[in-house]
Amino acid sequence: MDNNTKQKKLAELQGKVNLIFSQIDCVKVLDKALAMDSQKIIEDVSKSGLRGRGGAGFNTGMKWKGAAEVKDDIKYVLCNADEGEPGTFKDRRILEEQADKVIAGMAICAKAVGACEGYIYLRGEYNFMKAKLQAGCDRWNKIFSDKKLNFKMSVRSGSGAYVCGEETALMESMQGNRGEPRNKPPFPVVEGFLNKPTVINNVETLAYVTTIINDGPEKFSSLGTKTSMGGKVFSVSGDAEVKGIYELPLGMTIQEFVDIFGDGDTKAVQVGGASGSCVPRKNFDKTIIGFEGVPTGGSMMLFNSSRSMYNVLRNYLEFFEEESCGQCTPCRVGCQQLLKGIEAIRSGEKPQEYLAELQKLASTMSIASKCGLGQSLANPFNTITRHFREEICY
C-alpha cells in the first residue's frame, strides 16, 4: 500500500469515529445529563456498549450500576490517569487537549451514582500538567456549584510506580499508603477509596462518556463490532511509517492495521504494551483488535525483521522485575526467575527444553499473582517464546 493510499484509508477510518478529539460544548452536555434521571444515564452508557479503555475492558454501565445500588452518603469518582504502560501515551494527549470531556464525564458519573467528590490521579511523570488540570477542576467546580451539583474535583499526583495503575493500588497510594494491590472482594464500587463506594475509570473511558451523552448511545454502539463497540485511541510506535495517536474503530484485523501503519517489513505487533500479547506475521489476518481477539489499552508497538525478539522480551522482563511491588511471591520471585531463565538458556547454562518450564511458570503466575502485573506477564512471555522460539533459543 503506497503512502497516498495509506493516508486516504487512515483518514477514512478516523472520519468514522472522530469522537474524542472533536469539539463539543461540555457544559451543555453536563446540562443534558443533569436533566436526565440517574438510571437513564446508566442505561445509556450500558446501551452504548462502552467498556473500560484502560485495558481490562469491564463494562462501564455495569460498574456504575453497582456503585449506584450501594447505599452510602459518601461516594467517590476517580479518574485513573496513571498512564504507565510502556508504549502508551494517548491519555497524555487527551488530558492536554480534551480535559473538559474527562472532567464532564466524571461529573456525569457523579450524577449517576450519587458521588460527592472526584479526583484525577495523575501519573507522577505528568506533573507538568498538574497546575493546568487543577485550574480546570477549579473552573468546573464553580460550574458545578452554579448548577447545584453537589460535586467537587481536584488532582492528586501519582507515586511514580507502574503498579499504581492497578485500581486498588491506586487507592492505597491516594490514602498515603504504599502502592500495593488489595484483595478482592470487596470491590471498589462497594468499598474503595477511604472504604467508601468508588468508581474508577480510565481517562479515555470518561471522555467517551461525555460523547455518548452528547450524541446518544446509538452512535457509539454503531461503531466497531457487536463484542467491541465504539472507537479506540491508539498509541502507535516502533518500526512504523506512521506514528502517533489515532482514534480508530475497534474490530480491525492486525493486517489491516499493519497495512496502514507498518513499514512493509512488520514481523510482529505487541498489542497492549509490555503486558499485552505479541502477534506474529502469520496471524495478522486472523487476529482482531478488540475484546473478541486481542484487547488493548491503546499501545500498538510494531517490530520489523531487524529487531531481536529476545531483546524485546528481556527488556519487558527487566521492566516487570523492577516494577513488581514485591507483595506476593508468584510475581516477586516469578519475574526474577523468568528473566534469569531466558538469560540462562541464551548463555547455554540451561537446555532449550527449559523454556517449557518457564512457560509453565508464567502461566502459573497468571493464576496465582495478586494483581494484573503478575497476572498479565504470561501474555508477552508465552506469546513471544511460542512464536519466536528460534530467537530465544539458539
Overview of this structure, please?
The chain contains 16 helices and nine strands. It is of the alpha/beta class and 394 residues long. It folds into two domains: 3-221, Rossmann fold, CATH 3.40.50.11540; 309-392, de novo design (two linked rop proteins) (Up-down Bundle). The strands form two sheets. The chain has a five-stranded mixed sheet with strand order 6-5-9-7-8. Strands 3-2-1-4 form a four-stranded parallel sheet, sandwiched between helices.
Tally of distinct domains: 2
Average predicted confidence as pLDDT: 95
State the helicity in percent bands: 40-55%
| Class from helix and strand fractions | alpha/beta
Task: Report Rg.
Answer: 21 Å
What coarse outline follows from CA principal-axis ratios? globular
Distance between the termini: 35 Å
Q: What is the tally of helical segments?
A: 16
Please identify the oligomeric state: single chain
Q: What is the spatial order of strands in the main beta sheet?
A: 6-5-9-7-8
Protein traits:
394 residues; alpha/beta; de novo design (two linked rop proteins); 2 domains; 16 helices; globular
SSE topology sketch:
Elements lengths: L2 H15 L8 H9 L3 H11 L11 H10 L6 E6 L8 H24 L3 E6 L7 H17 L5 E6 L9 H8 L23 E5 H13 L1 H5 L9 E8 L5 E6 L4 H8 L4 E6 L5 E4 L18 E6 L4 H15 L5 H19 L6 H15 L3 H5 L1 H10 L1 H4 L2
Parallel strand pairs: 1-2, 1-4, 2-3, 5-9
Antiparallel strand pairs: 5-6, 7-8, 7-9
Helix pairs in contact: 2-5, 2-8, 3-4, 3-5, 5-6, 5-8, 11-12, 11-15, 12-13, 13-15
